[in-house]
Amino acid sequence: MASENQKDWMASGSDLMRRAMQNRRLIPDVPHLKPIIDALPAGAVVCEVGCGPGGITLDIAQQYPELTVLGMDIDDESIKLARDAAEKAGTKNVRYAQGDACNLDKLVEVEGFEALDGGCDLVYSHAAIMHTNNQLAAISHMRHASKAHGTISLHEGDMGLFFAYPENPGVKRWLETFPVLGLSKGADPYLGRKLVSLVLAAGYAHGQIKGVSMAAQMQWRPQVKPGLVMGFGQIIKTSELEEEDKKLIVEGLEEWSKCEDSIVSFPGVIVTAVKEA
C-alpha cells in the first residue's frame, strides 16, 4: 500500500481484517508461488511487497529456512504484528520493514533490506498493488528490486468480476459500491485486467512474461461467512456512504451469509515475469 489516506479503505484500517490477513498462508492463498520458490537455491532472497501482518511471509520462512524472506508494508501496525508473530515463532530468516511500495529504493538503507537494490530472486505482491496511488511506479520498483533472471509475480483482484449468489438488494448494492469506495481512496479496484499492460510499461518485454492466468477465491463454507460479513461490514460502516445505504448493505450481507447455498467469488489475475540480464 502506498499512502496514509488509503489506510482506512481495506485491511490497514481494520484490526479485524489485519487478523484475517495474518491467517494467510502460501498454499491456500498464493499456490502459484510454490514451484517458483521450490526452484530457488539456498541463500536466495524472497520479498513480499504489501505483506500486511506477515501471514504468507512467515509461512514461507518457516517452510524454507534456507531462504531469506523480506516483507514490507505501508501500515506500521501490520508490520508490528508481523514482527511479533515471527519473534513468537522463533523464526530467524524473516525480516520486516515499514515503507512505501512506490519507493522501495528507500528501504535499501534499512538493515537487512539491501537486496532490494537489484538483489532479490523473487519479488511478489498479493492484492496489494491495487491499493497504491501509482501502480506503475510500484511494479517498476519491484522490477528494480529483482536481480538479473529474477522473478516478479503479481496477483491482483478485479472487483468488476466479483460476484455473489444469491443476490439481494443489499448484496447487489455492495457489489456496486465497493469498487467505488476503492476509487475514492485513490486505489484501482480493476487492476487485475491491467496487469499485463503495466508489466510491459514497467520495462518487461513480451518474452519475459512467463505466465498470465486467472484465479478465483471462492468462499462458501458456513464457518467463513460470518467473518466476511464482519470484515466488509466494518469497512462499510466506517465509509462515507449514506446511512440508508450502509444499513441496506450490512443487512443484505447478513441475510446472504445465512443462506445455505450462498457463495462469493473474488476473481483475480496473476502475471509472472522474469528479468533479463
Automatic annotation (TrEMBL):
Residue ranges of every copy of the Methyltransferase domain listed in the record: 43-158
Pfam assignment, any one: Methyltransf_31
Entries under PANTHER family matching the protein: METHYLTRANSFERASE TYPE 11, S-ADENOSYLMETHIONINE-DEPENDENT METHYLTRANSFERASE RV2258C
Organism: Pseudopithomyces chartarum
Stored InterPro entries: Methyltranfer_dom, SAM-binding_MTase, SAM-dependent_MTases_sf
Gene3D superfamilies (UniProt xref): Vaccinia Virus protein VP39
Cross-referenced SUPFAM superfamilies: S-adenosyl-L-methionine-dependent methyltransferases
Superkingdom, taxonomy of origin: Eukaryota
UniProt-recorded name of the protein: Methyltransferase domain-containing protein
